[in-house]
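pasting for ref. prot 1 ->
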Amino acid sequence: MYDEIDNLLGDERGRYCFDCASLVERALTVIDRLETEQLRPRPPERKEHELALEWLASVCGGPAAVAALHDRPLTDDGLGLPLVESAADRQRLDAVAELLDGAAERFFDAEVGHALRRALLRLWELEPLVVLGARPATQVAAGICHAVASANGLVGPKGVVRQSALRQFFTVSQSPSAYAPPVTQTLRGFWPWHDVSRPWMWQRQLPELTALGYADLLTARVRGQLLRVRDQAVAAAGAGQAGTRKPSPTSSCAIGT
């Protein structure tokens, strides 16, 4: 189509004013791009259970984590703060931990408190500068709290706390979500967890969960919901494989007799 229009207009270009000629050229460019897009081979549509398993992997941290998923409550085992030689670093770590404990007591429950503490320790292990940077402890704690609470669907109109309440508690100048990106990115690493969306059939049953890639930062309630998604997706995958499997000669003879 592009070539045909271009040939028809080729002899007429000299009659256009500059602005009209530019407009025609832009229109032809758009047509060319649309034509190229239509001719590009499209990948086959993915089945809903495949999208569900991919989303679960993004939330839990990979297929192995999805397979090992359970709904036992989080505990405080191994959540003690590490030994830190620098007095200033130890003071910062203690301050952030105290703020997170206070937020859990004020807005959430003990299990969310364990998830917050585990997130702090994991950040310390992965990249201590996220905790020790130039930002005050209140902003660091607000970012951790928002990231973990969002991973469990606890922030917002459908959650248990609003950002305004968290902002007031941590006494920060911006919404806690403004301080969450360094936390989220450090926990995700280089995995593209954020590019995966919830399966549409589960969007009413499940809250929007920020994918951090760690099942042990999720509460038992959330993991229980994810287990139901996993079991249905695995069952659908198995049914699909069974439906496409060709019957063996032996089974065919048995059916015919």
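and prot 2 ->
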Amino acid sequence: MKILPFLILVLTSLNSFGQILEFDSNVNESTEDQSYVYKKFYPDYEFILAYAQKSFWFKRQEYSVLTYNGSDWELKKWSFELKEEKIKKSKVKSRILEKEKVIELLNVLESKGFFSLNQDSLNWAKKNLGNGRMLHQSILDGVSEYFEVISSSGHRIYSAHEPVQKQEFVYIGQREIFLDCLNKFLELINTK
């Protein structure tokens, strides 16, 4: 009788994850062909959720990549340098994650609508001042928060440049969802 609760938990988790895999792409073939994450990890994994902070000033690219191979969830810390658009000095460190914690994260992302966010709204930086006037905020330097999601059903890329500062300047619902999901993702990858 003890196997029945375990079986129900496993089937519920798999069912929950199965719902996450269905999302539409916001990436065309040309962008996909230029994706370092896509080239490195797909099709070796059924599901890929990659995160990076990007800046003009960063010499090394550093990604946290959540992968699912059909049985295990792994967190891969992948770093590399680019020279003439080619990856050099690539390093990958991996660790297995607890399935329940990953499923919990994915359920939160799905419930918040992460897999259907509008990329354009993530970088909106205009505030209506009234009388037909708009105030535009421009951040010339800084960091972009970057996500890439890949599965057999789709490929999505989100990039938000200094989303916290822009959100303080003008509230955007889609950006709030992005920031909530970013914080949940960081909670998972920063736990030991």
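The radius of gyration is 18 Å.
Residues 35 and 44 are 15 Å apart (CA to CA).
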